[in-house]
Amino acid sequence: MQNYILALLTCSFTMSAIALIYIAGTPILEKRYSEKGRYYAWLVVIIGLIVPFRPQLGNAIVKMDIPGGTAVPIIQIGNGTPVTIPIPATTPIDNTMSPHYTLALSWSWWQIAVVIWLLGVIVFLAYHVIKHYSFVKMTRRWSENITDETIVMLLQSLKEEMGITKRIELYLCSCAGSPMMIGFSRPRILLPTVKMTLDELRFILKHELVHHKRKDLLYKYLVLTAAAVHWFNPVIYFIVKVIATLCETSCDAEVLRNTDSDNRQFYSEAIIGVVRYQSKLKTALSTSFNGGKKGMKKRISSIMDISNKRTGVIIVCIASIMTLGTGVVFAFSALSPAAYVSIPEDASSFIYQYDDEMGGIMIKGYIGTNRDVIIPPTIDGYPVLFIAGTLSSGYTPPTAAFSDVDSVTIPDTVTEIGFAAFRESTVKTVIIPDSVIYIDYHAFDGCTQLSEETMLRILENQSGSTKFD
Questions:
Q1: What confidence tens digit (pLDDT) does each residue in 78-96 have?
Q2: Which residues form the domain of 321?
Q3: Residues 414 and 283 in one domain
């Protein structure tokens, strides 16, 4: 989940940058490329926002290393020798150990981020689901099925002309501010209570049928999903507005394909007539036009534009390349060798107790899940001074503080490594600072996998005090 949050933030930043570049270039692109091509280029951006993960290459331009279980920082031990070990992830674990030991429970930044993000997604989706449900309920209450044979035959004729076989219901709705289609699985066209001629109605119905044929409602579901995932990003709301306008203008262009200026003028007047009185009841999951005066002006200008334009396939291709290319430009990875900072293990992963005589913390055990551990220099505001295993009564062997690990980095606050601290451990590398002045003779009993560098470091630090079995 930590990787997902980091990928989400990276995706939100990079895709926002791509979207803003696209929006900035729209005045130039709209003169050369069709609305349809520019509309579907936005679909690539939306999918890129929903799916945050990208193919990543090792030679990314910008690398962001994260505190994960496999990150590779470079740390210097006490004598200055560089040693490469992974950065551990922080894993909060419940304390079920002895009541004599204190186990601090804390949340890492990414866990807090996950909770906040999930709450935001839930609130966002709940708002739109409730709003949509209320709108649908209202339209059902105030809708009247259109049974006029002339209108019904006109709808059927347009469906046959456009190759649509799915049943589409037609209603007159007093609470609909403009013609719209709702319902993805059971589509319904809602017409406002505005007088329209048969020619005007032909254009209006064809417009809504184009929405159906292009599956624009599915597109809108994807847009809403992207907005829910990136609710914290203000750019996403700008993107939603731009796509909504382009959805209508591209649909207009499809309706008016191969028509003359007179028909375009007539269509413009019909559009203005039916959307003049817009209702405040709206839903994001419909094909209604909610662009306001500025949006309407842009829409009319687009309708009257009869210039020949390219299909816009090149824009879709460029958007796809830029979206996939963010994995090359930006790479967050736990495998990067470029990290030069160490992230200590969370205190909740240790069993420890405060020692009155020493005036600091004694580490008695590690209960985390990471194979590579970095001991924090302080816990509960007290310095970590001592590491030792737990002595057992009778013939029971002592319990090592660190047993099933690969590497341990000791902070420079520690002065002693006590009895059975690493007894029969699988540890290979132990980073020992110069602050350690005493290592018990049996601290590393049974450690058969210690690296040469670690053994030399132990011998240099406390010659003759350590025994290797």
A1: 444 444 444 444 444 344 4
A2: 2-54+113-328
A3: no
**Phi, psi dihedrals of residue 75, rounded to the nearest 5°:** -120, 145
Is there a single domain that holds both residue 131 and residue 197?
A: yes
Q: What is the DSSP code (8-state) at residue 398?
A: P
Are the C-beta atoms of residues 270 and 203 closer than 8 Å to each other? yes
Q: How confident is the model at residue 192 (pLDDT cuts 50, 70, 90)?
A: confident
Each residue of 330-389: pLDDT tens digit?
544 433 333 334 456 678 888 888 888 888 999 988 888 888 899 999 998 899 999 988
As beta bridge partners, residue 355 has 360
- 279 lies in the same domain as 361: no
Cα 19 to Cα 374: distance, rounded to the nearest angstrom: 41
Q: How many domains does the chain divide into?
A: 2
- Angle, alpha carbons 165-169-173 (nearest 5°): 150
Residue 463 has what pLDDT?
63
Give one DSSP letter per residue of 42-96, joined into a string.
HHHHHHHHH-------TT-SEEEE-S-TTB-BEEE-TTS-EEE-PBPPP------
CATH of the domain at 419: 3.80.10.10
Tokens representing 292 are 């306001």
Residue 188 near residue 207 (C-beta atoms within 8 A): no
Report the distance separating Cα 218 and Cα 216, nearest Å.
5
Question: 108-140: per-residue pLDDT in tens?
Answer: 777 888 899 999 999 999 999 999 999 899 988
- Phi-psi domain of 283 (left: phi exceeds 0; alpha: psi -120 through 50; beta: other): beta
Name, in order, each residue with C-beta under 8 angstroms of 31's C-beta and a sequence gap of 6 or more: 307, 309
In a domain, 107, yes or no: no
Is 335 a domain residue? no
285/223 Cα distance (integer angstroms): 10
Task: Decide which of 269, 301, 328 is a domain's last residue.
Answer: 328
Q: Which amino acid is at 191?
A: L
Question: Which DSSP state fits 7?
Answer: H
In a domain? residue 152: yes
Same domain, 370 and 269: no
